[in-house]
């Protein structure tokens, strides 16, 4: 990890060690979520990585170097154990002393290695871990971040130092949780952003503007056709959140896979945008 980080450092803002991937091929190689059982190894990896980056002249002083152009972060993403005490032991080792912690931040995915993604996140685990570590370092949430207006917890009550989580997994307040009104420093999304790149702009489902922006970027930095079609298909389908609005019906999404060139894809989307929005001229080319 230290050597790979040194090679990547000139091109990235930080290095994140993913101890959350549950895929069997990763765990078989002692990668991803398998590392949740190797806390000393993970601790040594982040220590050596930070030391290597510092030796190469990168600024790894955490908050002291946030504004530095040579600032580089070292962070860890985790899942939780069935026995949450093991997760606490893991974080105690990897985070280190609160006054001189080993990582810049952690991202918590409150599911176990074997929990299906269709099962809601463990909000009680999130509450316990956040209340224990939020005063030490920034914590990001990963998992079930599909719509910022319907996250599975509510804003913290002013004056409390813990994240307030709903027992039924549903928010009880009309005010949506944000990094500013919870003890979370931010949210991370994978499947949610794939379906709706405008998620963090507050859009409950993917708007045409996001699709147009993607196509403009794909024109400037060409993607293989199959990869472009994959992203377009995800954006045009029902979102992962409560709003299941789709840009295109299923028959049109099936048609996407039959297109043979990027120009056919552009022409098809131009036509469909006019049909569904009434706006003449197809997609914008200036985004």
Features:
287 residues, alpha/beta, TIM Barrel, 2 domains, 10 helices
Overview of the molecule:
About 5% of the residues have low confidence. The protein has two domains: 187 residues, TIM Barrel; 70 residues, no CATH class. It is α/β, with parallel strands linked by helices and 287 residues long. The radius of gyration is 21 Å and the shape is globular.
Task: Describe how the helices and strands are arranged.
Blueprint: H1 2-8, E1 14-19, H2 24-28, H3 39-55, E2 73-78, H4 84-95, E3 106-108, H5 123-133, E4 139-142, E5 186-188, H6 191-195, H7 208-220, H8 225-236, H9 250-256, H10 262-277
Parallel strand pairs: 1-2, 2-3, 3-4, 4-5
Helix pairs in contact: 1-3, 3-4, 7-8
Strand fraction equals 5-15%
Report the span from N to C terminus.
Answer: 37 Å
Please give the share of residues in helix: 25-40%
Order of helices and strands: HEHHEHEHEEHHHHH
For the biggest β-sheet, the strand order reads 1-2-3-4-5
Counted by DSSP, the helix tally is 10
Rounded to an integer, what's the Rg over CA atoms?
Answer: 21 Å
The CATH architecture of the largest domain can be named as Alpha-Beta Barrel
Categorize the overall geometry.
globular
User: Average pLDDT across residues?
Assistant: 90
By secondary-structure content and strand pairing, the structural class works out as alpha/beta
């Amino acid at each position: 990890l230290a050597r790979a980080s040194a090679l990547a450092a000139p091109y990235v803002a930080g290095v994140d060690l993913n101890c959350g991937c549950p895929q069997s091929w990763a765990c078989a190689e002692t990668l991803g979520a398998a590392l949740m059982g190797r806390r000393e190894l993970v601790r040594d990896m982040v220590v050596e990585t930070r030391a290597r980056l510092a030796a190469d002249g990168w600024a790894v002083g955490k908050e002291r170097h946030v504004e530095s152009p040579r600032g580089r972060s070292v962070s860890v993403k985790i899942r939780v154990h069935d026995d949450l005490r093991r997760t606490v032991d893991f974080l105690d080792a990897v985070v280190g002393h609160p006054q001189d912690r080993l990582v810049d931040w952690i991202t918590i995915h409150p599911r176990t290695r074997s929990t299906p993604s269709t099962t809601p996140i463990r909000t009680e685990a999130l509450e316990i871990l956040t209340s224990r570590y939020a005063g030490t370092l920034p914590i990001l949430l990963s998992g079930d971040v599909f719509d910022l207006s319907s996250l599975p917890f509510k804003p913290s009550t002013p004056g409390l130092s813990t994240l307030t989580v709903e027992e039924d997994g549903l928010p009880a307040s009309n005010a949506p949780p944000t990094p500013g009104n919870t003890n979370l420093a931010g949210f991370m999304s994978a499947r949610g952003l794939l379906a709706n790149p405008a998620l963090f702009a507050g859009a409950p489902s993917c708007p045409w503007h996001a699709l147009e922006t993607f196509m403009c970027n794909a024109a400037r930095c060409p993607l293989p056709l199959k990869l472009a079609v994959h992203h377009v298909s995800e954006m045009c389908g029902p979102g992962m959140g409560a709003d299941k609005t789709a840009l295109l019906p299923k028959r049109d999404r099936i048609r996407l896979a039959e297109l043979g060139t990027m120009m056919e894809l552009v022409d098809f989307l131009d036509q469909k945008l006019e049909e569904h929005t009434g706006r003449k001229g197809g997609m914008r080319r200036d985004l």
